Amino acid sequence: EKPEVPEIKEHEYVDLGLTSGLLWATMNIGATSPEDYGDYFAWGEVRPKKTYDWSTYKWSNGSGYSLTKYCLDNDYGRVDSKEKLTLSDDAAHTNWGGSWRMPSDEELNELYDNCTWAWTTLNGVKGCKVTSNKNGNSIFLPAAGSYWEDGYIQAGGRGDYWSSTLGPVFPQDAYGLGFYSEAIERTIDSRYVGRSIRPVYNK
Questions:
Q1: What's the pTM value of the predicted model, to 2 decimals?
Q2: Which of 14, 74, 76, 105 is the most exposed place for a label (fewest CB within 10 A)?
Q3: For 173-195, what is each residue's pLDDT tens digit?
Q4: CB atoms within 10 A of CB 48
């Protein structure tokens, strides 16, 4: 299902020629340019907020052991066997509409495996230029850091982006992709942390 034309015009995209046929947005949710950090989201939440911790997290009753959604282990809350965000809890879909959504863990891994990542600066902002090994097109991911409790962590030094996929061992965690000047890595982090989101859609 293709998004309507106004949505494509409103949110620019790049075709990186990847096997999944995904089109990647040129900027983060809440951003006005590719280098703009944009907003931060806890995993499964669709609005930014001031404080990011378990007490403010939507899908728990105040701790990582009282999850109310996306839980595979009754030691951590109410089991519902959901391993991937529904569209109603997907910040890309709820904020941008159409067929926009968050990338899955597999799709972030595809970006990792099939692109050349170069730490660089765009208009004074540090981040990674991600260039497709398939067709040479590229996107820029700013190093916006993460939002822990009520402050930024490593903004300008590191980028952290959520996937829509729950973590592999503990349902308190979710998959993402992180990078800094020396490395790119698949990440597994607490769901309450505020991170950047780079939307995708299937062409």
A1: 0.94
A2: 74
A3: 999 999 999 999 999 999 999 99
A4: 17
